[in-house]
Amino acid sequence: MNTEQAETVFVIFGSTGDLAKRKLFPSIYNLYRKGNLTDKFAVLGLGRRNWDNETLRDVVKESIVTEHGQDAASEAESFLNHFSYMPFDVTNRESYQQLGDQLAILDETFQIPGNRIFYMAMAPEFFGLIAQSINNEGLKETKGWSRLVIEKPFGTDLKSAIQLNEEIRKAFSEDEIYRIDHYLGKEMVQNIQVIRFANGIFGPLWNNRNIANIQVTSSEQLGVEGRGSYYEKSGALRDMVQNHMLQMVSLLAMDVPLQLSTDDIRSEKIKVLRALRPVMGETISKNVVRAQYSEGTMNGERVKGYLQEENVSETSHTETYVAARLMIDNHVWAGVPFYIRTGKRMAVKSTKIVVEFKELPLNLYRKEEKQTGPNLLIIHIQPDEGITIVLNGKRIGSADTTPVHLEYRHDSEDRVNTPEAYERLLFDCMMGDATNFAHWDEVSLSWSLVDAISNAWEKSDKVLASYEAGSMGPKEADQLLEADGNSWWPVENM
Ligand code: BG6
Q: Which whole-number Å values give the CA distances from 492 to 211, 214, 352, 356, 402, in the listed order?
């Protein structure tokens, strides 16, 4: 590691919020604890509240205790000294001037060579204004580098995303912008490329001659958790499909990049998004299912339906579940459905990819259903991490055949040392590696696809399907696959 790269001031806009407390502070602490941050760093929290350094440090300490226990907090004193807080009004020019002074002091105190990460962890309507004010007030004019980290949602549709992008591009170049998609920081999402491109057994098979379909599931048990007003406007399509689900699809379908460079990888992913067949107009009901959860039972307890959640309209049409058949119109993938599904209040929390290979044209052993099945490659993203390969074998001691599972799961020791997504992404940002962040072209192409779907929904009078909380989604999602002679592979016990 080039430690000079890691000498930086993190300026967190929205440091009094939930994201900072739950994700950013623990991640910065982990980077420090593991020696990925030298002593030459500072964290400057900004927010509207009238906090002081001590209030912020107490919050940081609390987040460390929550994750690492009380002992960690007593050892963390020297870490906490790197944190300070400034009340900040994003609309006031003077605030930025004071910020400039404060940054100069921090550079001096901690011997930081002017490297700055401006982290937007607050309401998106101010991102453009903040970025431009940073630039106008000369806060980027240092000997070091400046980077802008933007949390999702990056716009609410293509139009607003373009507007936001234009605003931030007036102040930061594309190379300086790091658009977070936290799925790209997950261990097993990053492993997709290694599994695909470092194994001779998969390379030649990774195409429409050998793969029957690919299924990507991200199911959650949580409901909207007090985020009703945000979720009402977003729904599962904007909240999960536009970013996380399409990112996973592009990693699965991208061609081998020329090299493992940011530009080469991004350009292959972008090609996939360009080749995705738009789902619009009449094709919508055949290819996309939207649904909302109704009351149900989870872990033995009754839970509310979506319409009874706080800050949700009683007549809401917002979808809490989406399943879709996506087709990629290129030479490699023509004819192979990519099925995706994601939803809240489902039976299990699970993110999993199942690659189903085509069966042999003539399988002498396939006498009865279940005696043999298609070969599968299963990538377990969360909560378990690992891969399973499903082959057919002989049942020991009998003439029967049966599917056998070859499993590799990360053991608990590996997982304790596995950095969390945010920790990895912050580290990449310090190192100037934008590979696992979304490029503007990816964001805009995925908004085009999502806008086409939501426009078609607005025009169609087809009612929203329904699924019981605690189930694996609506029957319409099963029918989507049955229409192709397929079915969802279970996410449990696989
Ligand atoms: C976020 C969504 O981007 O991802 C949330 O806004 C969702 O609604 C979350 O719960 C899921 O992330 P993970 O890492 O728990 O799968």
A: 22, 17, 10, 16, 19
Between residues 307 and 413, which one has the greater pLDDT?
307
- Cβ atoms of residues 276 and 196 within 8 Å: no
Ligand 1 atom nearest to 234, measured from its CA:
6
150 contacts: CB under 8 Å, gap ≥ 6? 120, 127, 168, 177, 178, 179, 180
The answer to whether residues 285 and 470 touch, using CB atoms and an 8 Å cutoff, is: no
In the predicted model, what is the mean pLDDT of residues 36-57?
96
Q: How far is the CA of 154 from the centre of ligand 1 (A)?
A: 15
Q: Rounded CA gap, 337 and 246, in Å?
A: 14
pLDDT at 366: 74
Task: Tell the residue nearest (CA) to atom 13 of ligand 1.
Answer: 183
Give the integer Cα–Cα distance in Å for 341 and 354. Answer: 12
Please name the helix (run of DSSP H) or strand (run of DSSP E) that holds residue 43, with its range, or none: strand 41-47
- Residue 172, phi-psi category: left (phi > 0), alpha (psi -120 to 50), beta (remainder): beta
| Nearest-angstrom CA–CA distance, 293 and 469 | 5
Beta carbons of 11 and 413 less than 8 angstroms apart: no
* Contact by Cβ (8 Å): 42, 110: yes
Cβ pair 60, 51 in contact under 8 A = no
Cα dihedral across residues 21, 231, 122, 42: positive or negative: positive
In the prediction, which pLDDT does 362 show?
85
Asked if 68 is an active-site residue, the reply is no
